[in-house]
Structures are given as structure tokens and as C-alpha cells.
Amino acid sequence: MSDVNEVLSLYKSSSFYKKYKDTYFSDIILRDALKCKNSIHRYYGLSKMSYEDVHRLSTDVLRDLFNKFAKEVDFNDIELFWKMIYSFYIDPDSNGLKELNGIQCTADGLFSIRRIYRKNGIDIQTVEEYAVYRKIPIFFFPQEKNGINSRRNFVFGDRIDYTLYDIKLYLDAKTDEERNQCKLISTYKLPKTKMWLEELGSFKNLVDWYGIEDIFVNDNYDVYDIERGNGKVISAHLDKYDWDWSENYYSNLKGYIDRFVRK
Fold first, then answer.
1. What is the pLDDT of residues 25-35, one digit of tens each?
2. Is the pTM of this model over 0.90?
3. What is the pLDDT of residues 184-243, one digit of tens each?
4. At a CB cut-off of 8 Å and minimum separation 6, what does 31 contact?
5. C-alpha span between 213 and 204 (Å, rounded)
6. Domain count of the chain?
7. How buried is 73 (Cβ within 10 angstroms: 0-12 exposed, 13-18 middle, 19+ buried)?
8. Do residues 126 and 152 share a domain?
9. In which domain, by residue range, is 163 found?
10. Is the dihedral of CA 59, 227, 206, 178 positive or negative?
11. CA–CA distance, 113 with 219 (Å, rounded to integer)
12. Contact, 133 vs 233, CB < 8 A?
């Protein structure tokens, strides 16, 4: 890793620092990434902002950090640049809200900023992919500790196709024995999640609520296998799920989001 003092000098000479000096974004980069002992200006009004507003804000600062710092000073320390991003990044998901008969649900983005950065590194592509593929939320799950939003990351390596397949198994099940075979069965028993699933009642209703027919599922409500593509559907769970996606899954998922946005 680069010498932090050298990076600090470069940072303070950059156009980014001149623009964001004495703001939350620069303050927290200085403290958390560059190990300075400084106070942090607060960023007011975040809780009242929409998903779109928070996404635009994070995108703008991310683009400025790339153009007005990394590109300007020819910075190439991938690890330290990630620490700078992670320090200021504000995820929009908690500001993306959708209700189902009074049950509050929050957005669950399909591409995390960490995953996009790991794929592209210090490159404008990181900014552009984040701008496009986190712009519109598609999936929402009940706002609950250890809910589907967080558990699907651990259980399915953050894959949305197998998450949908597991929910389909639960909603299509006729007996408790069948439901108990679901990978997320403990999550489905959480109070808000249980109410949400009961309100939906069927996988078709879930698909309609999201508006994902002919995109993530076919006409028979079979879930498409995003990694395999070509209209192939999921018929059983995998033995193991990895957090590291294949190139096929990453690329194909972008195509699914593109189709959702165009519909």
C-alpha cells in the first residue's frame, strides 16, 4: 500500500479536496481512509431523501473522486482507493421503500459497490456501472433484522435467481415439510417476512408485485438461471454457492436489469 502521508499530500492538492473540503465526504475520507484526526461535518437531510436522490449523490461523489483525484494525480493504489470509497459511500437501499398492505419493505440492490469495484477497480467503468445498474431498484424485502436482504447474500452468494427460486419453493409448498426444505426457512418465519409472504399468497403475486414476468421468470413462472442464460430455468438448488460470481452471471445480470429498465 502507498505511504499514507504521500497520499494525503496528493489528496490535499487535488481538485476533489478543493471542492469537498470541510464537508462530510472529505472529512470522513481523511479520518477513515487517510488516518487523520479530524472532526466530521454532518450531512443533514439524508433520511428524507429518495432512493434516486441518494443514488445520484453517491454517484456524483464517486465520479468526482475518480476524475478530480485518482485520474488527476494518477493514483493507482487499488486497496487504498477502495478505503476512500467505502468511507464516504452512502447506500441508497434503505431509502428505497415499497409497501405491501402496510408492510414496509426496502430496496435490495443487485450489484453492490464492492462487487462493481472488485470487477473494474480504479476505472471510470466502476462509476458508470454503478450509475446505471443501481439507478432503479427492482427488488424489495421486508425491513427486518436478518431478513432476506442480508441473508440471501450469505446463503446464495448474493444471487437473486436462487433467492427467487427459494421463495417460489416456499410459496408453492403444500405442506410444512416442503416449506422446511427451503434454504431461507428461518428467515421466512420472521414476523414481518412471514406476514409479507402470507399477504402475497402465491409466487405469481410476487412476480406481479415486482413486475418481473418475462425478465426474471418465464410465462410459467419458472425462475431463469441467470448464469446459464439462454432461457434455462432453475429446477433445484446448487450444492454450494460462492460469493465470487462467474463472468457469465455478472454479464447476464446486467442484461436482465437492462430489460427491466426498458420494459
1. 999 999 999 99
2. yes
3. 999 999 999 999 999 999 999 999 999 999 999 999 999 999 999 999 999 999 999 999
4. 37, 38, 40, 87
5. 9
6. 2
7. middle
8. no
9. 140-262
10. negative
11. 32
12. no
